[in-house]
């Protein structure tokens, strides 16, 4: 499955790759419904969340000099709401509220695999379209490098491979020394292909079961005579 002797860097997406995203979305849907049913005057917040995500999705592969701010401006143009309110709503519902639920939605198989990878001195890099530091803390995952599309060194949305080139530059490795695990062929897969990095879609391998397979494969290299 993997050329472990040559592998130096394992790159992981976050949403849907380190945890079950559909399970989290179900919990979030109930939480949003419960919250806004008794706050009808704030219902426009749901439009903010919708357009923030949809406008980003429309611009797959987009690059700029200030992606962090532009993503909020795209949303503001659709809902006619001050930027500060948009940032507050997005921060609450996308970057703060879901975090306590992440550990329960995790793929438990990832932990023994990451421990084994680190034992074999394989660097772990995390690349997400959204900032992921707080998510990783909640998931109790420690990475050697955490990269987001909105970082000033990247400023490009997937599937533009800018972040992958940045990761390879930091670790001083070549594409054939890396593997990228994600859950979306149209973004993660294309991103990896453009950087000439091998890609594994977690959904192809029955979600968390991929990590068990990788761990078993890595363990077996030590048993080869």
Keywords:
225 residues, alpha/beta, Rossmann fold, five-stranded parallel beta sheet, globular
How would you portray this structure in words?
This protein has helices at 21-37, 44-58, 67-79, 83-96, 99-102, 110-119, 133-139, 162-171, 185-194, 209-220; strands spanning 9-12, 123-128, 145-148, 178-182, 198-201. Helices cover 50% and strands 10% of the residues. The chain starts with 8 loop residues before the first strand and ends in a 5-residue tail after the last helix. α2 (44-58) packs across α3, α2 crosses α4 (83-96) and α6 packs parallel to α10 (209-220). The protein has two domains: 9-20 and 106-220, HAD superfamily/HAD-like (Rossmann fold, 3-Layer(aba) Sandwich), CATH 3.40.50; 23-101, no CATH class. It is globular. Strands 3-2-1-4-5 form a five-stranded parallel sheet. The protein has ten helices and five strands, in the order βααααααβαβαβαβα.
């Amino acid at each position: 499955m993997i050329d472990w002797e040559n592998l130096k860097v394992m790159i992981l997406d976050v949403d849907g790759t380190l945890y079950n995203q559909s399970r989290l979305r179900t919990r979030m849907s109930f939480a949003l419904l419960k919250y806004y049913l008794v706050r009808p005057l704030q219902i426009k917040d749901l439009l903010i969340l919708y357009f923030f995500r949809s406008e980003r999705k429309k611009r797959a592969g987009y690059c700029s000099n200030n992606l962090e701010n532009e993503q909020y401006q795209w949303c503001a143009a659709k809902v006619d709401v001050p930027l500060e309110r948009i940032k507050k709503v997005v921060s609450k519902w996308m970057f703060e509220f879901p975090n306590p639920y992440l550990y329960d939605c995790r793929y438990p198989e990832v932990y023994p695999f990451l421990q084994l990878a680190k034992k074999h001195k394989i660097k772990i890099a995390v690349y997400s379209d959204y900032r992921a530091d707080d998510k990783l803390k909640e998931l109790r995952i420690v990475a050697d490098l955490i990269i987001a599309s909105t970082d000033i060194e990247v400023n490009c949305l997937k599937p533009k491979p800018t972040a992958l080139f940045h990761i390879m530059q930091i670790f001083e490795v070549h594409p054939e020394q890396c593997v990228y695990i994600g859950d979306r062929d149209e973004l993660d897969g294309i991103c990896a292909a453009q950087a000439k990095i091998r890609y594994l879609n977690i959904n192809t391998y029955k979600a968390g079961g991929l990590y068990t397979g990788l761990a078993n494969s890595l363990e077996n290299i030590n048993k080869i005579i």
